[in-house]
Fold this protein.
Amino acid sequence: MGTTIDGIAVVGGSWRSRHRALRLAVAATGAALEDARLQPAAVDILINAGIYHDRNLGEPALAPLIQADSGINAGDPTPGRIGTFSFDVANGGSGVLTALRIADGFLRSRTVATVVIVAEDADPGFGLAADFPFEPAAGAVVCRWTDTEPGLVSFRWHNRPDDGAAFRAGIGLRHGRNVLSVHEDPDFAEQAAETAVVPAREVLRDHGLGGDDIDLLVCSPAAPAFTKKMAMELALPDDRIVAAGPALHTAAFIAALAAARQHSRLSEARNVLFVCGGAGLTAGAALYRP
């Protein structure tokens, strides 16, 4: 029994939505629910793991806006009517895995039945970003609890604080405007991999597994330095590593999940290792058994 991933969707930005993080997130949420064959009213919790907001607005949190625009139980719950709790999680490239850990806690407690996690990357537009480096895209996953499948069975985390030296995205005042700037050190991907190897090995050790037992490693970021380091440290052949969207940030892990699902690779695997590395440096790993 455990938390399973029942719906996955990734959408790209067109010329109309490339500066609209909210619009991309709503599109991905609707597509993931459709993929899971669920109606919006079935969602108990919506977690937004994206960090880039339209026009760099800090408030309100984006999750309630995604909920409202997706038609997910708008308004306060009343007797006999379901309500939806929505909130943001800000952990950069590790945000989706963080949200999965939170979702697993809620679902494991049996207080909810369905959780949607969404992440989106979009230039805030209007000249409010200095050379925004990521492609406009959003991804969403639908998580549910099952009594018949193992699902998510283990999580581990590791931090190597660097005060944002390797990667940082922040908003500062320039000429009277709040401007987003993103800095990535050339060695960030390798540093992130060095951090991510620690929780990955801990998850394997927790379950008495070795590299030969892992059918798929689904990871982000998709930078070659990251995937190459993970393959070497975990003794995994390249064809077992799935990463997608080298120009994506918070949505990259969901894009990797979508790629892993192709040709039934995700559903037919016995042991799937999820690994995310992000700014901080912060990294997480989880074992998923479909």
User: Anything to note?
Assistant: The chain has two domains: 2-148, 154-289. The CA atoms of residues 77 and 143 lie 22 Å apart. The mean pLDDT is 87. The domain at 154-289 is CATH 3.40.47.10 (Peroxisomal Thiolase; Chain A, domain 1).
